[in-house]
Specification:
The complex is a heterodimer of chains A (217) and B (246). By secondary structure, chain A is mainly α. Chain A contains eight helices and no strands. Chain A has a domain of 150 residues: MetI-like (MetI-like fold), CATH 1.10.3720. The radius of gyration of chain A is 20 Å and the shape is flat. In chain A, 40% of the residues are buried. Chain B has two domains: 119 residues, D-Maltodextrin-Binding Protein, domain 2; 100 residues, 3-Layer(aba) Sandwich (D-Maltodextrin-Binding Protein, domain 2), CATH 3.40.190. The radius of gyration of chain B is 20 Å and the shape is globular. Chain B is α/β, with parallel strands linked by helices. Chain B is 37% helix and 25% strand. The chains are: A mainly alpha (217), B alpha/beta (246). At the A-B interface, helix 1, helix 3, helix 4 and helix 7 of A face helix 1, strand 2, helix 3 and helix 6 of B.
């Protein structure tokens, strides 16, 4: 088999890797932001429940959770598809980690701004959406990028539930061609490319929430 | 809306059907395409002994195969969990596996070969010599039970001295790098790799391992498939196997 053919098959897998990564990142972002917002909006009871969620989901290995969701839930009559299973395991774990990243960033928002906003008559939700979140996201960029790359590198678990991502293609190709070193080098390059895409996405978020003349370094 | 539903299909990825209507019965198949010659991919297409046997069965019964590749754990999990109707990729019939899944009748006798690099020219004449060498194979293989039950009690080899790897690729790479003396390979796998690598059999164990197609517990498909295996057993089945091994 020619190397161009190998690369074409690996690229096919890269599409699925990207799909898994982006779906799980989106699930994580929604969950993480949701947790932070709910914690700010409601009282101690809810906050305790959310703290329990992050406590549990940060502690369970992704593969264990994936097995529970994909192979365990059908026993209860729920049959999540492979991608949904990834979102419910890797995505939710990512959400728990992001919630903690956001919590740290949120603490760095100047409390006087929040008081000022409340004095201006902004509702709690308005304060969160227009004062706290934009600043929080800006401060959370490095932590978020860390988390997203972790998700990318956990994406090979998708193969365990039947998503033919890069690692699957690499294993199948290496077993017949015995050109493992070339194949895995190409895989490394592809992962690096996807990592670059994630960096680009983060730069876009950074630009969107940048305050002109403030913390531009 | 059409575009949206297409997007949903993509999202649900292999989810339930997406409105496709198949008149022929669809059989969900779980495979691990890293097990030549039983199951592998050739230019991105599934191929191999197991695939040919099951395709022939499906042709005879008028059904369609929907193949999903998993890693080894995932493939077995899919059969146990019922995500797949059948799994095949050179799966050994073992007592442990029989507790959680059903097997067809054995369709292939497999040998276990200890191979070494041709230039090392290791020959295991007496089992007592085994101790002198390191043995390696992929995790989760049936060799572990074999060593524990057959070799360890007789003092031929200690399971603690085994080197475990993620897959055959790493085993053979380490063998070539000189970090490993002997690799445990399926006879079928050894036949494939012998053509591409300078390796030779140092010892062959036979009569311990047979391959079967794996089905979920209580599968009616298994009953029918066993009937089919009975029909083709003999020269017809051997012809399919020989096509890939010789």
């Amino acid at each position: 088999m020619r190397f161009s053919g190998i690369l074409a098959l690996l690229l096919e897998g890269a599409g699925y890797t990207l799909l898994v990564t982006v779906s799980c990142v989106i699930t994580g972002l929604v969950t993480g932001l949701g947790i932070v917002a709910l914690r700010r909006l409601f009282g101690k009871g809810v906050a305790r429940l959310l703290a329990l969620y992050t406590y549990v989901f940060r502690g369970i290995p992704v593969l264990v959770l994936l097995f529970i969701v994909f192979f365990g839930l059908p026993g209860l009559g729920i049959r999540p598809s492979p991608l949904v299973s990834m979102m419910l395991s890797l995505g939710l774990v990512c959400g728990a980690y992001l919630a903690e990243v956001f919590r740290g960033a949120l603490d760095a928002v100047d409390p006087h701004e929040i008081i000022a906003a409340e004095v201006m008559g902004l509702s709690r939700l308005q304060v969160i959406l227009s004062i706290e979140f934009p600043q929080m996201l800006r401060l959370a960029v490095p932590g978020m990028l860390n988390e997203f790359t972790t998700v990318l590198k956990y994406s090979p678990f998708g193969y365990t539930v039947g998503i033919p991502e890069i690692t699957k293609q690499a294993m199948a190709l290496a077993s017949t061609t015995l050109r493992g070193i070339e194949i895995y080098t190409a895989v490394g390059v592809l992962y690096f490319g996807i990592y670059q895409l994630l960096c680009l996405l983060m730069r876009m978020i950074e630009r969107k929430f940048r305050v002109p003349g403030f913390a531009t370094q | 809306m059409k575009r949206f539903s297409g997007f949903l299909c993509l999202l649900l990825l292999l989810g339930a059907g997406c409105g496709e209507k198949n008149e022929m019965k669809e059989i969900k198949v779980a495979v691990t395409p890293a097990s030549p010659p039983n199951l592998f991919e050739e230019n991105g297409k599934t191929a191999g002994i197991d695939f040919d046997i099951f395709t022939a069965y499906c042709k005879a019964r008028g059904c369609q195969l929907k193949i999903t590749p998993y890693d080894w754990q995932g493939m077995l999990g899919a059969v146990i969990g019922g995500q797949a109707d059948v799994a095949f990729s050179g799966i050994s019939i073992t007592e442990e596996r029989k507790k959680v899944m059903e097997f067809s009748k054995p369709y292939m006798e497999n040998t276990w070969n200890l191979v070494s690099l041709t230039k090392r020219n290791i020959k295991i004449e007496k089992m007592e010599d085994l101790k002198k060498y390191s043995i390696g194979y992929p995790r989760g293989m049936a060799y572990t039970a074999f060593i524990e039950k057959e070799l360890q009690p007789k003092g031929y080899y200690q399971i603690a001295n085994v080197k475990l790897y993620p897959s055959y690729n790493e085993v053979l790479t380490d063998l070539q790098n000189g970090n490993l003396d002997l690799a445990f390979l399926d006879g079928t796998v050894a036949a494939v790799y012998r053509k591409k690598l300078p390796i030779q059999d140092s010892h062959v164990f036979s009569g311990f391992d047979r391959f079967g197609f794996a089905f979920p517990k209580g599968s009616t498909l298994r009953v029918d498939f066993d009937h089919y295996l009975d029909q083709i057993s003999g020269p017809e089945l051997q012809a399919i196997i020989d096509r890939w091994i010789k």
